[in-house]
Amino acid sequence: MSLQVKRAVKRLLAAAVYGFYRYKPSRNRIRVCSIDETLRILQETKKSMVRFGDGEIVVINGRSIPTQAGGEEIAEGLKRILAYPYDDLIVTLPDIFGGLAGYVPSTRDFWKDHLLFFRQTYHTFCNPNRVYYNSFVTRCYITCADKSGSGDVFRRFREVWKGRKVVVVEGEATHNGVGNDLLDLAEKVERIICPSRHAYDALDRILAECLRYEKDRLFLLSVGITAKFLAEELFLKGYRALDIGNLDMEYEWYLRKAASKEPIPKHQVIGEQANREAGYDRYLKEIVCRIE
After folding, report:
1. Are 242 and 219 in contact (CB under 8 A)?
2. pLDDT, tens digit, for every residue of 259-271?
3. Residue-number span of the structural domain to which 248 is assigned
4. Taking the model in full, what pTM does it have?
5. Are 56 and 94 a contacting pair, CB within 8 Å?
């Protein structure tokens, strides 16, 4: 059987299984609220947020992803957080269980394939007594069939940190808010730059740098799987921390009116000299710490 035929068979199987679960409510007990409700909570409360996507579910199953090697310690920690143990640390999931009509065709196929292999993981480790919030709050543009509401999502996000002192914890190539106005409403922006890959190995050092700040700081986290653990630790120590993932990338695509995923030039800018040559002097001044 050729690879092309195998892929076609898998796609048909994934679609059939997805349809079976969708129309069997008793088998589909995971509840995810809307993007609007997720934004309302972020705007109107001081709750912290942890986001789960496909990568976290893959790592829970003992595998690795390109940005983070898996392992038992990481998998067990993710299972604990996925169970949604705290009221004020909201946990988000992809809104994929009740239907996929709101997404572009390639995204629908992706999530059907994902659930074909990992649906049981959600049922095993998610808390059936919780309503989860929506991970697509930070993925509100490129995969959406209707993009008309994306601008409002970004506007409401910017209101969350309006007038706040913000600490961005991100990878060395991420550049949240650089070259756009995503963070312009913040009173002050400081940055802790972390490894772009396998940042979990530096979790203790990253956390130690974060704990140097007063409790009035709002932490915005873009460090992949490590952000889940960092958000939990900061929350438990009295800080507000939001795992914003690839929000800035989505915003860049929105500003460009991109029809599909495309490279963002600033993600290729690494190192002090390269950033100076790119004209990112403000970004460099905002960096307070680099963790190798």
Report:
1. yes
2. 999 999 999 999 9
3. 3-290
4. 0.95
5. no
